[in-house]
Amino acid sequence: MKTKWVRMPLGPLQTNCYLFSNENNECIIFDPGSEGSRLNTYLKEKKLTPLAILLTHAHFDHIGGVEDVRNQWGIPVYIHRNEKKWLTSPALNGSQRFIGHEISSRDADHLIEAEGDLQIGAFTLQVFETPGHSPGSVSFYSRDARLVFSGDALFEGSIGRTDLPGGNHDQLLKSIHDKLLTLPEDTIVLSGHGPETTIEFEMESNPYLNGF
């Protein structure tokens, strides 16, 4: 299956939303963080058919566009069970504390209960539990496309913050080391903020990972 991806930074924090599509113009949407109507317009213009919304975690800047997109296309939302309540709770997802208005959505349609393969249409993704930035953070790996959607676990030259509720610095480093750095070195890392990178580049130059 031929695939391609598009990054769309959305909202005031420029959170990366990704559209991962195949030759049939079907796509999976990762982290529609804001500007749902803009995202819907883009999908229509490109004649893409969304199959699902996958959330790497449920901080407010990753979920702000969920309802607009879910309602427009009637597609399911997936999130890890450890953040089951975060979508409906502005206190848990951080919007109550960090921004001037509350963000919430309905419950997810599917809870990710464990690691393993996730099949959505013709797409097969491997789910890795990568907590540390948040308790339910997950990364989605496409073996065929050799890329991983890492959310806010791993960035180019950096790692996710761990000073938010449920964050744990040592746990995040372990997640990155055990789950992400074991991927093939040419794997493209598609992060929640900033540009793409590769596993090899981060192994060699990320100052947060040196000596771990």
Itemize the secondary structure elements and their pairings.
Blueprint: E1 3-10, E2 15-22, E3 26-30, H1 36-45, E4 49-54, H2 60-63, H3 66-73, E5 77-80, H4 90-93, H5 95-98, E6 110-112, E7 116-120, E8 123-129, E9 138-142, E10 147-151, E11 154-155, E12 158-159, H6 169-180, E13 188-191, E14 197-198, H7 199-205
Parallel strand pairs: 3-4, 4-5, 5-6, 10-13
Antiparallel strand pairs: 1-2, 2-3, 7-8, 8-9, 9-10, 11-12, 13-14
Helix pairs in contact: 1-3
Please explain how this structure is put together.
The chain is 23% helix and 31% strand. With 212 residues, the chain is an alpha/beta fold. The chain has a single domain, classed as Metallo-beta-lactamase, Chain A. The strands form three sheets. The chain has a six-stranded mixed sheet, with helices on one face. The longest helix is centred in the last third of the chain and has 12 residues, at 169-180. The radius of gyration is 16 Å and the shape is globular. The mean pLDDT is 96.
Content-based structural category: alpha/beta
CATH class membership: Alpha Beta
The assigned CATH architecture is 4-Layer Sandwich
- Low-pLDDT stretches are none
| Strand order within the widest beta sheet | 1-2-3-4-5-6
Rounded radius of gyration (Å): 16 Å
List the secondary-structure elements in sequence, H or E: EEEHEHHEHHEEEEEEEHEEH
C-alpha end-to-end distance: 36 Å
Q: What fraction strand?
A: 25-35%
> What is the mean predicted local confidence, pLDDT?
96
How many domains in all? 1
Annotation, overall tally of beta strands: 14
- Number of DSSP helical runs: 7
Sheet having the most strands: 6 strands, mixed
Query: What is the CATH homology-level superfamily?
Result: Ribonuclease Z/Hydroxyacylglutathione hydrolase-like
Q: What is the global morphology?
A: globular
Q: Write down the CATH topology.
A: Metallo-beta-lactamase, Chain A
How much helical structure, as a percent, in the residues? Answer: 10-25%
